[in-house]
Amino acid sequence: MTTTHLATRRHTVVDSPYGPLTLVATDGVLSGLYMTEQRHRPTEETFGDPDPRPFAETIRQLDAYFAGELREFDLPLHLDGTPFQRTVWEQLRQIPYGQTRSYGELADRLGKPGASRAVGLANGKNPVGIIVPCHRVIGASGSLTGYGGGLDRKQRLLAFENGTGDETPMLF
C-alpha cells in the first residue's frame, strides 16, 4: 500500500528595504520569497497557513544581508520547477555578490549557447527572489532587462550590492 504525502505549506510576511516579502515554506523548507506586485507571484491561497516558525533562519540571514553583513545565503531550498529551470536557478546561486552575468553568459555556462531566451524565461520564474539572485542577471549590452520584482527594485538591489546606490527604503 502506497501513501501519498501532501506537502504542508506555511507562510509569513516580513518587512525589507524593498517592501514586504512573503516567505513560503514547503514541509518546513523555504520554497518561495515573493515581493509585492511581483510577476509570476502565485495566488495567496497557495501559500498555506500563516506561521512564522519555519522562517527564523531565513529571516536572520535576510536581516544580515540587508544590513550588509551577509553576501551568500546558506539555506536549504525546496525549488519546484522543470529540470532546466532548476539548473538555471543553481547557476544563479553561483553569481557572486555584487557581480552580474548576462543571459547569454548563463546559457554558455549551461552548455547551451543559443538558449539565452530560455534562460531568461527560467530566470523570471525563480520562486525564491533575492536568495536565488535573479536580480544579478542583465542583458548582453549591460542593460537592466526584465525583473519580476520590477526594474526599480532590480536597480536598487544591484546598487546596494555594489555599495554605489541609494539605499533608502521604497514606499509601498
Structure characterization notes:
The protein is α/β, with parallel strands linked by helices. The protein is globular. The strands form 2 sheets. It has a 4-stranded mixed sheet with strand order 3-2-1-4, with no helix packed on it. A two-stranded parallel sheet has the order 5-6. It is built from 5 helices and 6 strands; from the N terminus they run E-E-E-E-H-H-E-H-H-E-H. Helices cover 28% and strands 15% of the residues. The protein has helices at residues 56-66, 83-92, 103-109, 116-124, 151-162, and strands at residues 9-14, 21-26, 29-35, 49-50, 101-102, 137-138. Residues 11-78 form the Methylguanine DNA methyltransferase ribonuclease-like domain. InterPro entries: MethylDNA_cys_MeTrfase_AS, MethylDNA_cys_MeTrfase_DNA-bd, MethylDNA_cys_MeTrfase_DNAb, MethylG_MeTrfase_N, MGMT, MGMT_N_sf, WH-like_DNA-bd_sf. Keywords: Cytoplasm, DNA damage, DNA repair, Methyltransferase, Transferase.
Topology:
Layout: E1 9-14, E2 21-26, E3 29-35, E4 49-50, H1 56-66, H2 83-92, E5 101-102, H3 103-109, H4 116-124, E6 137-138, H5 151-162
Parallel strand pairs: 1-4, 5-6
Antiparallel strand pairs: 1-2, 2-3
Helix pairs in contact: 3-4
Task: Considering the chains and any ligands shown, give keywords for the structure.
alpha/beta; 172 residues; disordered C terminus; single chain
Structural class: alpha/beta
Shape: globular
Give the C-alpha Rg. Answer: 16 Å
| Oligomerization status of the protein chains | single chain
Number of strands: 6
Order of helices and strands: EEEEHHEHHEH
From the N-terminal CA to the C-terminal CA, the straight-line distance is 51 Å
The helix content, as a percent range, equals 25-40%
Largest β sheet strand count, sense and barrel closure: 4 strands, mixed
- Poorly predicted runs of 5 or more residues: 167-172
The strand order across the widest sheet is 3-2-1-4
| Averaged pLDDT | 88
Strand content: 5-15%
Number of helices: 5
